[in-house]
From TrEMBL:
Involved in the transposition of the insertion sequence. PANTHER family: TRANSPOSASE INSF FOR INSERTION SEQUENCE IS3B-RELATED, TRANSPOSASE INSO FOR INSERTION SEQUENCE ELEMENT IS911B-RELATED. This is Integrase. It comes from the Bacteria. It comes from Saccharopolyspora thermophila.
Length: 278
């Protein structure tokens, strides 16, 4: 608008732009001033690029840990100015429900997604990825105490071995006396005798979501959303092997480096170590 003032009257320009006269002169006076947020914008950009598709909450946590005293809304506003956007996750769920093929357990977890100690409550599920013309299935077991992925398996078929192998690995991490509640949906793998046998042998309690209610297992569903947005949707994997290698690296990063609001901005491993040391 300032450039057009040589050819047009200011009153006309203000009327066309819908601006008040005071607003125009306010921004004109600010135009020559240095950007007071220049250093903060540099720190925000570095924090955003340090991770995988990071939103303003995670960026804000990193800035606070680095010593910045800044409001979350300020971080959001400046990220918008810098076009640093974390896209909304796409929803596409894999369903392993095939009706009642075995025994269905009660919803013992009942959306109580917090735990007071490690290995008290676990959640698990299966999701799928398409790699060219092949499907890859991912079965993690998450500890609700710190959202840590304590075991997982990957395969090209959503069969019984996929889920039981991740459960066996998770149960193998237990210490004497630890008997977790293990929650899943009503997928056929979790209704099967092999699953229930493993739980019974470990003294674990089985819990299942209500039929067709994904919110009963919302934490693991949220984790799948993060995996797909931060690892999968924006990268093309040419082979299953390349994807499984990237997935392994992602889980290591998720457990040891990625900050979580549930963990007060710490990674799951950091949160567990800090809590148990207190």
């Amino acid at each position: 608008m300032a450039a057009l003032r040589a050819e047009h009257r200011l009153t006309v320009l203000l009327e066309v732009a819908g601006l008040a006269r005071s607003t125009f002169f306010y921004h004109q006076a600010r135009a020559g001033r240095p950007d007071v947020h220049a250093e903060l914008k540099t720190a925000i950009t570095a924090a955003f690029q340090a991770g995988r598709r990071r939103g303003h909450r995670v960026v804000h946590q990193d800035l606070r840990k680095a010593g910045w005293r800044v409001a979350k809304k300020t971080v959001l506003r400046l990220m918008r100015e810098l076009n640093l956007a974390c896209p909304i996750r796409r929803r596409r769920r894999f369903s392993s429900y095939r009706g009642t093929t075995g025994e269905v357990a009660d919803n013992v977890l009942n959306r109580q997604f917090t735990a007071s100690a490690p290995n008290e409550k676990w959640v698990t599920d299966v999701t799928e990825f398409r790699i060219n013309d092949r499907k890859v299935y991912f079965s993690p077991v998450m500890d609700l105490f710190d959202r840590q992925i304590i075991a997982y398996s990957v395969g090209t078929s959503p069969n019984l071995e996929l889920t039981t192998s991740s459960l066996r690995d998770a149960l193998g991490t237990l210490k004497a006396g630890q008997t977790p509640l293990v929650h899943s949906d009503q997928g056929f793998q979790y209704q099967h005798r092999s699953w229930r046998t493993l739980l019974a042998a470990a003294g674990a309690t089985q819990s299942m979501s209500r039929k067709g209610n994904c919110l009963d297992n919302a934490v693991i569903e949220s984790f799948f959303g993060h995996v797909k947005e931060e690892l999968f949707h924006h990268t093309r994997y040419l082979t299953v092997e390349a994807f499984t290698t990237a997935l392994k690296d992602y889980i290591t990063w998720f457990n040891t480096t990625r900050g979580h609001t549930h963990c007060q901005g710490l990674s799951p491993v950091q949160y567990r170590a800090q809590t148990l040391a207190a």
